[in-house]
Amino acid sequence: MVASRRGSGSIVLPSGQTMAFHTRTHQEEDLPHATKKTMADHLRKYESLFTLTPQRMRMIVEAFKDTLELGLQKPKQIVPMIPTFVFGYPTAKEQGDFLALDLGGTNLRVCLVTLQGDGKFEMTQSKYRLTEEQKQDEGQKLFDFCAECLKTFIDTNYIDENGQTTLKEGEMLPLGFTFSYPCTQNRIDHGELIRWTKGFGAKNTEGRDVGEMFRKSLEKYNVPVVMTALINDTTGTLIASHYVNPRTKIAVIFGTGCNAAYMENVRDIEKIKDLGIDDKAQMAINCEWGAFDSFEHEHLPRTKYDATVDEQSNKPGEQAFEKLISGRYLGEILRLVICELIDEGVLFLGQNTYKLETPYCFETAFLSLMESDPTDELLMIIGIFTHFFAVETTLAERQFFRALATLIGRRAARLSACGIAAIVSRMNYLDEGCLVGADGSLYNKYPGFADRVHEGLVDIFGDKGRNIITHHAEDGSGVGSAVIAAMTKIRRDAGLYPNV
Ligand code: BGC
Description:
15 strands; ATP-binding; Hexokinase_C; Phosphotransferase; transferase; glycolysis
């Protein structure tokens, strides 16, 4: 990596935009700027607000463990600990062609996955970007869009050289539907949406069976598909990562949203005792831990910026843990701190700052870029502030912004470590150690995020924390979804728990 870079150039941002940067050799002297000392004083204040001590982390882990236990005992808890009816890990011998549909926070993806056994697979996929309008429109329309995309995908992928369909008369293709929002399940192909998260607000969907809504759309568009399983992305990630690496025991997503799944002993899931499932069986649990500490706000160290993010969101009070961690919110937290300093007359005096005043204009990707700026003068940060927000910065201010990004990014990673630690202690994985399959833009693209999670685990558990290792997971929503569809087919064919 270049230690220092001067001159001009351009970089391509995650959003696809190109940003030019150039080195300036003189600071703009005609604008009033905060002094280095003022910025250092402010930084100290934010350091104490955003820093999590090991002791505080251990307290959070304890509260987290109690919450997980409660969710397993009783239905309708804040952290719902959803039984997924995915029984145990895959054998890695699962084989066959499966379709997977993935309705994520940003895109809709259709995949054709060929499971080859031995933990191997091949995949073809198409992606469709979701518009903001679709996210807020009628829910049924969203599922209609899913069905239409699926149909187009099948029409283009299931044809021979002569353009004729390769599907047999009446053939129905098995599909795993990854729907990454909290749904209560009483069967694997059913799911009642508890609430939308990640800024979605499609109407007439909360409280309804999204499996049923999707099936209605499939019928409407005559799509030759049978939905075998409705899956959360975390459950898919757990199964996909275990399929290729059996030491994986926990899966986490750090993306637009934040959540985890793990394999629980059925005998310890009190709330499904009456289903008559063998006590020795295991079942994947979709924790929906993003909801930890929602409404009550008793355990998490929320700052006033977090409270503002929450109040101004479309779901105040909800997803309290997620709002401190996930990619959807980190940029906004930093923006609110900057806006406060503008209001106090510390930053950008005499400059027009209106561009910074739009909520969510400061992308979390900017935090990643600021933290990874390799130049002495922090040229990347100059570029971000001039190009996107039309404001001039001094080196002291840029160093402050970078340090602030580090504080917010590190807090997110350390809180994530608390969640992982709660599952590790619950399942006694510490001594033998385990792998944690992790996915999502924050985990994959934020520099140092994984290292900070690992540091957090050592702060919580001491040296033994090193036994818990996160790694980039296999594609849960594609491969995982296909493996689960395969596992479900095998289970159903064997007549095991046919009602669920
Ligand atoms: C959703 C979860 C999902 C997570 C990651 C959260 O907002 O509630 O179901 O697993 O985002 O995508």
